[in-house]
Specification:
By secondary structure, the protein is mostly helical. The protein has 14 helices and 2 strands; from the N terminus they run H-H-H-H-E-E-H-H-H-H-H-H-H-H-H-H. A two-stranded antiparallel ribbon has the order 1-2. Helix 10 packs across helix 11. The longest helix has about 40 residues. It starts with a helix and ends in an 11-residue tail after the last helix.
Length: about 300
């Protein structure tokens, strides 16, 4: 039993990092000593050199039989880990494709509807937004993006010709990040204006705003090359009750896994894109690499 003193020492006194640098050959040997098998060691060395040993650890965790000793299950091949890594990479690219289309669509509807209701410079009217603090912060970030892109002809044209401190909203949205779009939309004071945008996707505005916030997390993970296939995300989103056919697809027991995100992306892509093949590409990708979808939160 830990005494108060030993508990304090165990909890608050940190030890120095003492793991030595390992050459590529030693990294291979370490994996072999833990039970990993190789079909082609030279190929494995090539991938470890270019992908980073530490980066790959996130992909071989599911192959460990004892995480404390980092020993692997029987018949675990390096090529199994590489297969999973390449799948995850292609999955991120497919997600970015969907996120790009969703982001551009939301941008367009945000610009159109705010301009129709409040004029070309709706973003310079703080009275139409709910939180003054959030409005101020979002405006500062937008101005920073405008300034960063001031060499772009569509931005330069405005400041060369007009006196307003921002271009019209349909220009501003072109430099907004997904996070900024999410913040502008969710901060519109009157619900009916948020609802107009959300209803074009047959969703409630709370659902759309929640999903966009979640999607910024997914987008950042993909853009920074983080593992996503079996990741448990810190921020999920409010699942829609309607349409009923959509609601039935969600996995309520694993809300923070990627599956629900994929379901929602597929739903929005079907609305946004004619002849949408995104879900077919997703299913083909899973089949190509023989992926265990249960670890992605699939039903």
């Amino acid at each position: 039993m830990l005494t108060p003193r030993s508990y304090f020492l165990k909890t608050f006194i940190k030890e120095s990092f003492n793991k030595p640098f390992l050459t590529l050959d030693k990294q291979i040997n370490l994996l072999k000593s833990r039970g990993m098998l190789f079909k082609d060691e030279s190929k494995a060395k090539y991938y470890i050199e270019n992908l980073n040993y530490y980066r790959l650890t996130g992909y071989w965790l599911i192959f460990e039989k004892n995480h404390a000793t980092h020993t692997f299950k029987e018949n675990t091949y390096f090529e199994d880990i590489l297969n999973l890594y390449i799948f995850d990479r292609e999955l991120r690219l497919l997600l970015l494709d969907a996120i790009e289309r969703i982001e551009v669509s939301i941008r367009s509807k945000l610009a159109y509807n705010l301009a129709e209701s409040f004029g070309s410079h709706a973003l310079l009217k703080p009275e139409i937004f709910l939180s003054a603090l959030k409005y101020s912060r979002t405006l500062v970030k937008l101005k920073s993006e405008i300034d960063r892109n001031k060499a772009e002809l569509f931005i330069k044209h405005h400041f060369d010709k007009y006196k307003e401190e921002l271009p019209p909203i349909w220009v501003c949205v072109e430099v907004m990040t997904l996070g900024q779009i999410s913040n502008w939309l969710s901060n519109i004071k009157e619900r009916k204006y948020r609802q107009i945008i959300a209803k074009s996707y047959a969703l409630d505005e709370k659902i759309l705003c929640s999903f966009l916030h979640h999607l910024t997390i997914i987008r950042n993970a993909c853009a920074h090359h983080f593992r996503v296939w079996n990741k448990r995300f810190t921020i999920d989103f409010t699942l829609p009750k309607n349409p009923n056919d959509l609601n039935k697809k969600f996995n309520l027991s694993k809300k923070r896994y990627l599956y629900n995100t994929l379901v929602m992306c597929e739903y929005l892509m079907d609305i946004i894109c004619e002849d949408n093949l995104w879900s077919i590409k997703l299913n083909n990708l899973i089949k190509k690499y023989s992926i265990d979808t249960m670890k992605m939160g699939y039903l």
